[in-house]
Automatic annotation (TrEMBL):
Pfam families per record: GCV_H
Family recorded in the similarity comment: Belongs to the ABITRAM family.
Name this polypeptide is given: Protein Abitram
Record organism: Gasterosteus aculeatus
Keyword presence, Hydrolase: no
One annotated GO biological process: regulation of filopodium assembly
Superkingdom assignment: Eukaryota
Cell compartments where the protein resides: Cell projection, Dendrite; Cell projection, Growth cone; Cell projection, Lamellipodium; Nucleus speckle
Length: 184
């Protein structure tokens, strides 16, 4: 009985210190103040196979102050819905790094546009967040992701040139915090 119990304890300790799947297989990149809008930060999870998962950075206003989501809309304009993206043969819609992916409206009527952040083909949008918007709030890096984009092979190394590493992003956020605490 003691041996079994020890096994369980050791296993629990291992699980507590093991890196998450995200930390193990993805590199986190960031875009701060997207399109000049303060704190509208995006996170790009880049897998070793080039796939990039677009998520909200933990500092994004949607994830602050206990906000609730009223709606998520992948209809970008009258002629463009990311839900109509067809991936076959050569792949889905080609996106520039400032292409809007969706619009998220909070219950306080504040609307945020989420952008692709990188150039590449849109492989999928997360339809699960349409049915369960709380996934975006509760699990933004996993089940609450926005979209998956595949950069062109020849651009897969250069797409991160305009993005911030975790250390650079944390520096931006800490300067922001200092600036906000200064009396005006």
């Amino acid at each position: 009985v003691n041996i079994l119990l020890m096994d369980c304890v050791e296993q629990t300790d291992t699980e507590a210190t093991a890196p998450s799947v995200i930390d193990r297989y993805y590199t986190r990149w960031f875009r701060a103040d997207m399109k000049g809008k303060p704190c509208e930060d995006h996170c790009i999870l880049q897998h070793s196979n080039r796939l990039c998962v677009i998520t909200l950075a933990e500092t994004h206003p949607i994830l602050q102050d206990g906000r609730a989501i009223k709606s998520i809309n992948y209809q970008i304009s009258n002629g463009c819905s990311r839900l109509n993206n067809k991936v076959s043969g050569k792949g889905g819609q080609f996106l520039t790094d400032f292409a809007p992916l969706c619009r998220i409206t909070c219950t306080d009527e504040t609307e945020y546009t989420i952008y692709s952040c990188i150039r590449g083909r849109l492989l999928e949008v997360n339809e699960s967040i349409l049915e369960t918007p709380t996934l975006l709030l509760e699990k933004p890096s996993t089940e609450g992701y926005i979209a998956v984009i595949l950069p062109k092979f020849e651009e897969s190394k250069s797409i991160t040139e305009n993005l911030l590493s975790r250390e650079e992003f944390e520096s931006v956020v800490s300067k922001r915090t200092v600036a906000q605490s200064q009396p005006s």
